[in-house]
Fold each of these.
Amino acid sequence: MLIPTIAALAPLLTRAAGRWIAVPVVIFEILLGIVLGPSVLGWIRTDDFIELLSDFGLAMLFFLAGQEIDFVAIRGRPLWRATIGWAVSIVLGLAIGWIVDPDAGAVFIGIALTSTALGALLPILRDAGQLRTPFGIAVLAIGAAGEFLPLIAISLFLSGRSPVHEAVVLVGFAVITGVAIWRASRGDGRRLHGIIRSTLHTSGQFAIRLVILVLLALVGLSIVLDLDMLLGAFAAGVISRLLLEGAPEEDRRTIEWKLDGIGFGLFVPLFFIYTGVTFDLDSLVSDPVTLALLPLFTLLLVVVRGIPSAFLVPRGTTARKRTATGLMAATGLPIIVAVTTIGVEAGDMDSGTASALVGAGLLSLLVFPLVALAIERGDARRPRQESNLRPRD
């Protein structure tokens, strides 16, 4: 009962705090998980069943991120710039990771610092009305690169197999996924759309069942191929979006609302709450050196991920908008959790370092989007204010 209680309480706390500051709901989910988990009160214990649901919540988060990306809007220069920005980030991240931990942990730290929490940013952008603006599209492109490319890096370098062997497996997965994407993008699904419409408001719910099938099939394929399951979840989101292309706008929106309800109403909160429950607070606060890593990693997210992204936005972008874009790019958490979990389980990363990285991701999610949206709103108002200050003819 405690976990669904947290899930129901978090939006109420977000609404109450909204009178003073717009706090993302995931912050309260994680914080309440920490307080009620083993680190503080010990009321919630970890078990295999909740962990399984949490894993599915993480997969659902990446699925919704893949489904939300409008590749027509971000293709070309936005996506190309975002890819170059991530390439710069991975070089910086690996170099800094080696300085912080010259052993095997360097790769884990480096990949974690290059991530962008697109799945967590999407609700924030949507609630702020920024999702379809030029600013939102730029963040979408950066987030797509900051979620998909770290997943490739995880599969190549953190799977425990040789990178060459893993690259061959990745190519096989890419071929299977590419065929599915090509087939879904042909737009010849009139019969499919007819079945979707006829069951959309019945107990059949064919569209939702089909989407869940695609999600589980690609996640299962990723697991069988020993790839990171989030790669399959992200690809499933892209395919599901293409499957729904050409459907009547009203039907498509209804399906998206239902999937949001399943994802953000049930499974995604489980992931964030369980992240708080499993957060190793003792390892973080018991060692002053480890505790000092928390602000250091938060700053490094800006240096490694934010600054390269800010410098690669289109020419003519104002300094304020560059800053806001960089802060959004530096917001990370889900991939940080995934990478640190792999590192701790493999024995290549200290649990204290992992907690500091997750804590930095938590701080970035709490602070960076709020500051970025405030800067963006201020930048949007400036031309109007300046025009009002000009003397009339």
Amino acid sequence: MTESETIAYDVVVLGAGPVGENVADRTRAAGLTTAVVESELIGGECSYWACMPSKALLRPVIARADARRLPGLRQAVQGPLDADAVFARRNWFTGDWTDDGQADWLAGIGADLYRGHGRLAGPRTVTVGDRTLTARHAVVVSTGTRAVLPPLPGLAEVRPWTSREATSSQTVPGRLVVVGGGVVATEMATAYQALGSRVTVLVRGKGLLNRMEPFAGELVAEALTEAGADVRTGTSVESVTRADGTVTVVTGAGDRIEADEILFATGRAPRTDDIGLDTIGLEPGSWLTVDDSLRVTGTDWLYATGDVNHRALLTHQGKYQARIAGAAIAARAAGTLLDGADPWSAHAATADHETVPQVVFTDPEAAAVGLSLAEAEQAGYRVRAVDVDMSSVSGAGLYGEGYKGRARMVVDLEEEILRGVTFVGAGVGELIHSATIAVAGRVPVSRLWHAVPSYPTLSEVWLRLLEAFRDN
């Protein structure tokens, strides 16, 4: 094989994060030759700068918070967290930012790995350095997203943190300003406040976690404040400067806040600006619009899976799309897939529309699937929200003293199925899959009465929700 050689594959995947890896896994399982191109680490954002390191940072935080709710254990965990030990465990989960194991896994499934920057060079063609890869059936873009920084003058000189720096830092800043109110902002505020930072959270909008039910953000903000963080809503950032190591933030109200580091968690943009979209008539830097088989609109060979299609910017949802896309590519290669397939078939990413689950690993946790009440009403459904205080469940009292939380199910009154479910409280992340099954499976409320929750667990909240729906 020479450096200038053109090599043909059935499928070429741009991006070797968890989404691209799953596409390759499915196409190789179908017997299609597959090349994977990656310019950074195999395993992508999730493995090294997002899901895994952030949750590794948060797990000791949540475990200590749970322990402090239990008499007999509370006294044993009053000291500070060992930040070095927390970071060391986080480093282990990232493989110290090496990807040998992930590369070995790709080789094990029979996919060929090309390290370097991959660019489209026309239909079904990808260049990597001096090599040209052609695809008989499909090119799949799985290049993910990058953090977006606001257009503040001189911000580059401030050297702000994004999610990457926050999840990979080896030190705890004495003072940390977090700009944003979404998942990254709330999780990293939770982690660093517990690790010893004095955290200030600046949110432009009315509250935190604005894509969930309003009470989710309210309960998380209350807990952050009780932990010692300064949470300011309705607050814009007008300027940021750094001098002698100190960051100075000036807000729209004229307040000056000093910190050692500042984290901007203010949005994501697709990594499509330099992958050759212009060579196939698409706009560089754009989100890629796809159908439910993840095929890019207007093409019969280009697919986009994961964050780049802007359907659901979540690792688990991207991996779901990857499984769908891999199955669709294989079926089309075999001539067995026709357009207009069953929307709940193996070839349609139907769950992206109204059945997306998510867990925010704050204290308390916030977990939701499907539509919020406002989203369901906006979609035109005739719905009713049913709310239950989580502390009314026996399992909550056993979980820990002073348990605070809330549950909501959004019931479609015409079809008598669930359009959405939200839980907020310690440990509720493990409840969300039951809700996902109920929403995705369109399980009738009358049938849910026969799904008896075990006593005394947090899952008994399902019984309380059904009772509240029946009695009100």
Amino acid sequence: MLRTLVAAGVIGLAGATVHAQDERYELSDDVAGTARQLAETALESDLAYEIVESLTTEVGPRLAGTPQEARAREWGVETLRELGFENVRVEEFALDLWTRGETIYEDVAIVSPYPQPVYATSLGGAGSTPEAGLEAEIVFFDSYDDLLTFDDASDALEGKLVYVNDRMVASRTGEGYGWANRKRRSGWVEAENRGAVGVVVRSVGTSSHRFAHTGMMGFPDERMPEIPVVAVSAPDADQIERIHESGEPIVMSLNTNAGWRGEVVSGNVIGEIPGREAPEEIVVIGGHLDSWDLGTGALDDGAGVAITMAAAKLIGDLDQHPRRTIRVVLFGAEEVGLVGARAYAAAREEDGTLDDHVIGSESDFGAREIWRFDSNVGEHALPVMDTMARELAFLGILRGDNEGGGGPDMIPLQYAGVPMARLAQNGEDYFNYHHTPDDTLDKIDEDELAQNVAAWAMFTYMAAELPVDFRPQDDEGTSEDEAN
């Protein structure tokens, strides 16, 4: 069924070892033709759009651990069954619930020198203000690095609000996010250690709209913040910066109700397209089902849920299923710390099927067009990934490198040794909407969404059909994921 034109480099084919010379791997006409037909069908299909439209309309925002996320799991089970997936189930796990309180925007204002309201929202995991609120002068830091190097022996932050500015720069890869996000993850620790009563940060995003960007903070050694931490919209951050540059001291008021509400239940929703010859071998794909509560989670990550469900559905509609099982996982509680991803990996450790996961990938970067195909596989399998890239090229997709990850929810699996692939999307405007009220269905272009489904259908089918071991061999090293 397969043709290989290689002789040095090692590719496992149906239990055999093939040594090749020119390190080129060729697909059979049947496999290549089926992959192309899947793509052409996907490009004409509106299934993914129908799925994300259904999720964002019928469920809407779905913060991890809330009744809305539970409704999303019910939606996921029903939709997977309607699409013909088998072995549909929910794997539950415990979760500590955090909510921001009664409103998505907090009562935040500049008190002096120029009184005016500010659009702000609590960051995930933040504490609340005293019941009557608080009022304090801000200490302005132009960057997170400036806060890090602030004199620890000084009491200048005692009783003050720490403000961290740090702008994020947009890029196709989204690489500016990790750098700008340091203040969101760790700024509260530096501020609280120095006696500050709260933290205000410029939103981690690239939008010029007056919407604040939320997201989860980091909790070193399971320590939780005792102070409020809010993000302000970019226009409000600009306002604060201008007032600061005038030399006038700035006093702000905050009143927030954010906090932890106790242990609840979340879960991962799973559906499968069983393999025809090796059903125990699993190609795992998916997206995360939860979202932040500000928008309807169309881009983050309704699109990823829809793309992978639609791609697997198209493969399931073939006259003959691929050799391996395709497992679609709709991960729960991603936004609050990859809780569902960790639970999924732990469950596979427990049931002994971790080694059966031959390769994994997640769609979680919006709905713009895919432009690059990355991998993280054994060196012997690189000719196979290069061949996949050649098949994907007609969709405008370039071959990337072999040093990436498979997406946030794949991180625990990758750390456990599961090989990864990544269909990288164009993220140049993703952070205009990410974690804000602007993350809504109207931001999705149906043609770009269809191109995603086409690429995912091709990759997933080839990974499930080709009898290739993607794991590093004993004499190969492994590359590490660089997670956002």
Amino acid sequence: MTHVALYARVSTDRQDHERQIRELEEFVGEEYPDASVERFADMISGTDDEGCVEYHHLR
């Protein structure tokens, strides 16, 4: 079975990572229909190396 991890990041609380995740899920559904999917998302500035909690879980 294929395992896919999706990661989305937004910079401010005015942005929504859900749109990014939905688009990624659509792609994965078309390309890997039987894959199990794990989702990760952060809301951090692009220059913040310490706040990427979900990114570190992904890695």
